[in-house]
């Protein structure tokens, strides 16, 4: 079942709001700012002004809107210097989301062996039907950590993912699958995967259809193209769990980060530890074809970095038996997550919050109405 964040927010005493409900506006006034409500009247309530100051909104932000409600899950929104929407969330909302993300990672880690078993079985299908195409796409996502690829992005702005790849984006050479294409936000993707089984199945798909790679024949022999929805439906059925192609990226990013941090030294100097964390985020971002800031904010779970800084991650995490269907790094991540106190992994149902968040803005914008499922 999808995780219903609005409902869980209510259980914490938070109010799930739309951006349009943030009705306090910030206005430049001399060297500082003043604030007005929805009716254009100055905000003078010292409690409200203190809460706004606690948000530490960057002076460079424009079009700043702030919640009147101190329990709104979004406390403020604005545009940064590059015109991207940035958000300030209530601290309890941030805690809730992190717990839900950890819960989702555990769920995916338990489903992953089943997914890989199903992929291996369906890759042996003789008929190049929808299931076969979805299995090949799933294998590619697992090995190359590609985005699923939505038709809207792939067709309108040229940014592609797995299901919207063109035949010309994929070169097959010996035992290597070489991918070269333009991904989301114009990012150039250049990856090489060594996988003879994947190479053989991709070669078979190349013989079907016209330009797009992931084509298949329906029951009437007509050529059809695999969609991101087809792929995600297949993955959910294969894993017997509510998972998507994106989970491969978040799980792999956290697994890689925890493995590299477990093998790294933990110097006494906080500055030296920050350098190590930054180096790990660069390594993860290269694999994801993202920036280090995005890798840390959107893919590597915060618990991983927090545990390293607290000295709770070390070489011993990489020891012990492998879990069936998982790599050494993936096993370490699951062992780590399952060893955390339950209140770090599951959204709490305690009484509501007491203060707004003072977290940094996300490096990339988010939809105004956040998805109810992470």
Total beta-strand segments: 10
What structural category arises from helix and sheet content? Answer: alpha+beta
Radius of gyration: 23 Å
| General form | globular
User: Assembly state here?
Assistant: single chain
Helix content: 40-55%
Low-confidence stretches: 346-374
Distance between the termini: 11 Å
Q: Beta-strand percentage?
A: 5-15%
Biased composition (Basic and acidic residues): 335-346
Pfam families: Top1B_N_bact, Topoisom_I
Biased composition (Low complexity): 350-363
Domain DNA topoisomerase IB N-terminal: 32-80
Q: Would you write up a description of this structure?
A:
Residues 335-346 have a biased composition (Basic and acidic residues). This is DNA topoisomerase. Residues 32-80 form the DNA topoisomerase IB N-terminal domain. The protein is α+β, with helices and mostly antiparallel strands and 374 residues long. Helices cover 43% and strands 14% of the residues. It has 13 helices and 10 strands. Strands 2-1-3-4-5 form a 5-stranded antiparallel sheet. Strands 6-7-8 form a 3-stranded antiparallel sheet, covered by helices on one side. It is globular and about 70 Å long. Mean pLDDT is 89; it is low at 346-374.
Chain-wise SSE layout:
Blueprint: H1 5-11, E1 24-29, E2 32-36, H2 46-54, E3 62-66, E4 74-79, E5 85-89, H3 91-122, H4 130-144, H5 151-156, E6 170-173, E7 176-182, E8 188-194, H6 196-206, E9 215-217, E10 223-225, H7 228-239, H8 246-263, H9 270-288, H10 292-299, H11 302-309, H12 328-339, H13 342-345
Antiparallel strand pairs: 1-2, 1-3, 3-4, 4-5, 6-7, 7-8, 9-10
Helix pairs in contact: 3-4, 3-7, 3-8, 3-12, 4-6, 4-7, 8-9, 8-12, 9-10
């Amino acid at each position: 079942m999808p995780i219903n964040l609005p409902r869980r927010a209510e259980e914490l005493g938070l109010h799930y709001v739309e951006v349009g409900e943030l009705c306090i506006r910030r206005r430049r006034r001399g060297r500082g700012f003043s604030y007005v409500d929805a009716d254009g009247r100055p905000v003078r309530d010292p409690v409200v002004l203190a809460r706004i100051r606690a948000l530490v909104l960057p002076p460079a932000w424009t079009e700043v809107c702030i919640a009147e409600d101190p329990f709104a899950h979004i406390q403020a929104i604005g545009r940064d210097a590059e015109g991207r929407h940035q958000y300030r969330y209530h601290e309890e909302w941030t805690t809730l989301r992190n717990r839900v993300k950890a819960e989702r990672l555990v769920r995916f880690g338990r489903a992953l062996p089943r997914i890989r078993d199903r992929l291996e079985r369906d890759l042996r299908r003789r008929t190049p039907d929808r299931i076969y195409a979805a299995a090949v796409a799933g294998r590619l996502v697992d090995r190359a950590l590609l985005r699923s690829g939505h038709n809207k992005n792939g067709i309108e702005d040229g940014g592609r993912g797995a299901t919207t790849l063109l035949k010309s984006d994929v070169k097959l050479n010996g035992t290597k699958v070489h991918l070269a294409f333009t991904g989301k936000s114009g990012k150039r993707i250049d990856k090489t995967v060594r996988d003879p089984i994947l190479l053989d199945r991709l070669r078979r798909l190349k013989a079907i259809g016209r330009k797009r790679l992931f084509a298949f024949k329906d029951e009437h022999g007509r050529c059809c193209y695999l969609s991101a929805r087809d792929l995600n439906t297949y993955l959910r059925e294969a894993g017997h769990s509510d998972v998507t192609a994106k989970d491969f990226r978040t799980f792999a990013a956290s697994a890689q980060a925890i493995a590299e941090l477990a093998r790294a030294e933990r110097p006494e100097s906080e500055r030296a530890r920050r350098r190590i964390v930054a180096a790990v985020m660069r390594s993860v971002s290269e694999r994801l074809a993202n920036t280090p800031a995005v890798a840390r904010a959107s893919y590597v779970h915060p618990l991983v970095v927090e545990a390293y800084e607290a000295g709770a991650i070390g070489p011993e995490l990489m020891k012990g038996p492998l879990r069936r269907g998982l790599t050494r790094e993936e096993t370490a991540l699951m062992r780590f997550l399952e060893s955390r106190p339950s209140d770090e992994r599951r959204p709490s149902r305690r009484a509501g919050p007491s203060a707004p968040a003072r977290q940094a803005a996300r490096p990339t914008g988010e939809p105004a109405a956040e998805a109810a499922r992470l």
